[in-house]
Amino acid sequence: MVWRRKNEELNPNNLVGTVKYGGGDALVWGCMSASGLGNLVFIDGIMNHALNLNILRDNLKLSAQNLGIGNNFVFYQDNDPKHTALIVRLWCLYNCPQNLKTPPQSPDLNPIEYIWRELVITVDAAMRFRPRQKFVERSRRFYFQPSSQRFLEFRVLTRILQLKDIQSNTSTC
Description:
Order of helices and strands: EEHEHHEHHH
GO molecular function: nucleic acid binding
Protein name: Transposable element Tc1 transposase
InterPro entries: RNaseH_sf
């Protein structure tokens, strides 16, 4: 909840800056559910809406099947332009049973960021980009180990439930 006086929303003291496209050179796509972590895809080159669509086609439903949830999931992605491109939204409309609308600039509602942060810490930031194969191997080892599932259960899902409780107990101003 944000408290401020009327007409002060653009006052610099009330703004929080964000960095767009400020990631590193290693691009990784992954998905998760309460049942576990889905496929992990390492991306070469520039990520755009066409590549994002191909990754979704090749990995989203397969991950859901492997996790034993079939079509019983709510699909969530942030408001990045490659996620909101018309072709991607149309594919999601016809292929994902439920889509969760994302509020803009919502770090609390991006639970996979907790997994990415833990991956970077575990894999060791100094070797993330050299050599690439070693980064891929160590990332896969972290991502698919049982402790990552426990991290997902205890840290990520607990945080989501806390936010849900906060949201349901907070009235809108």
